[in-house]
User: Fold this.
Amino acid sequence: MTADPTRVLVLNSGSSSVKYQLLDMRDASRLAIGLVERIGEDSARLVHTPLTGEGAGTKRERTERIEDHAAALKAVSQELERDGLGLDSPELAAIGHRVVHGGLKFSEPSLIDDEVLAEIERLVPVAPLHNPANLTGIRTAQALRPDLPQVAVFDTAFHTTMPEYASRYAIDIATADEHRIRRYGFHGTSHAYVSRKTAALLGRDPSEVNVIVLHLGNGASASAVAGGRCVDTSMGMTPLEGLVMGTRSGDIDPAVVFHLGRVAGMSLDETDELLNKKSGLIGLCGDNDMREIGRRIGEGDERAQLAFDVYIHRLKKYIGAYTAVLGRVDALVFTAGVGENAAPVREAAVAGLETIGFAVDAERNAVRSDVPRIISPDDARVAVAVVPTDEELEIAQQTFALVGDARTV
Ligand code: ADP
Assistant:
């Protein structure tokens, strides 16, 4: 009898890219990581790094024409094969797919069957940029290994516990229901992982703690998590709502859209592009990388300073709002590229909030580390923490748990 398979391949399929990680769930170790970008172009690029065996840690790159997602996955499969990690290996237990929009139906990861595929397809009108790419990734993987369990892990799932008064927009209810207009929230896999890790850092059970999570990457969102359940989050029907992001405006008066149409003569597509791709930090100062903004501020650049100030002001408003939503806050946690690395952002976000319990210790905040850590002073009322996110590990764990459960049934 052979041992049960323990490997999980995690796939994050975008419209022209695929990111992947192969994990061994016995110890949650990475066996290989990589990405394919510019799919459909002559100069598509595959970057693959095995993390086990002879070539461990040595990056391999290929630049060639990669026609479509099927060709991309085939190329990935070849690279894995070279490392003795081929996708036809009996050790592969499942493939876990990141799926951006699961609507209201998917509050848990789901074993993919025709019904699940049809539901993801039905959600395309509310997630036109993401769900089609996710579907392509799933179908391609199914064609490659039709016998293998495939699991969809939804970015929206963690937020399905939001009470209706938090997920409703105050608009005509019949119109909202007909078009499935409501707040869904995103980055859920990260908010779930980080809020659980934060409870562990405090030595408490997730059911006992109230946490505000600030996921600050290029996309950014905040969530209020009470006793392990999400009760509010800043992204809405789409990832455009909420915090100021790298290229997205976040909260804005919707009448700006009417004004741009009526007065500036912009089409809806142009406005969509303006708010999603040319706003936020890049819109305000021309850069969306917080490292570059920090450098410019150091040189006295006023526009970079303004972008930083707008970003921080919005963050503070959400910290205050979620303090009110939760009533009692045990921890405020920073995660993702900016949250994990930008000490000045963390410092500025809580500056002046001492009276409502938030403070960072300057020395602790300055430490660079990739382990979860508390950066507030010992006597602080609220623990302020930095907890690196790991969405791929969370997807792999949820996938493996579901497949394991299916096997024991
Ligand atoms: P996403 O997954 O949303 O693309 P990440 O979570 O990887 O984004 O975050 C990317 C962002 O993190 C970059 O745009 C950059 O602004 C920020 N970042 C990364 N490293 C640092 C650093 N050392 N200091 C400040 N900001 C950083």
